[in-house]
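User: Could you write out the 3D structure of this protein bound to zinc ion? I've included everything you need below.
Assistant: Certainly. Input first, then the structure.
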Amino acid sequence: MRSPAERRLAYQVELVRAKRLGAGITLDETWSDRLRARWPHRLNCEMSCGPGWSDIIEAVNELIDQEGVDPITFSQIKEKFGGLRQYWHGLDPVGRIDALIDAAEEISEGMCERCGRPSKMRRSGGPGGYIHSACDDHAIRGSAIIRVKTEKIGRGVFRIRATKIEDGDDS
Ligand SMILES: [Zn+2]
């Protein structure tokens, strides 16, 4: 079941996507420059995930604007174990930023990192292989569909358990 933060973020992602498509902006590698131009101070950091997640990151930042909290800054935004990881500094007295960042990770696991379409979690090359969130078109050949359980054991520290559900169906 989706948390309130996740529902709120999912809605904002749809708004961002609709606005982006309306403006004729396609998803490509320029996404990080585009977002950094909008939030130059907050996003003055490495942003190294695929363009498919840029609508999530843009939506996160629009919601942070709405929070009106003390300014926060991101220190790194990247993909890890198939999910969107956003590390940040700043004050979060009631945990709303944390909830938003967790919601973004949750949503990214169902959204293709390359193109933003609905995805599945996959692993290439057996146990210990590369875990990625991808649609059928962008899955690494031969990867298996997996269920990933992420256990947060500290801020920015995770334990990952991946269970194979089915083999990839490419031949
Ligand atoms: Zn895709």
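The longest helix spans residues 4-22.
User: Perfect, thank you.
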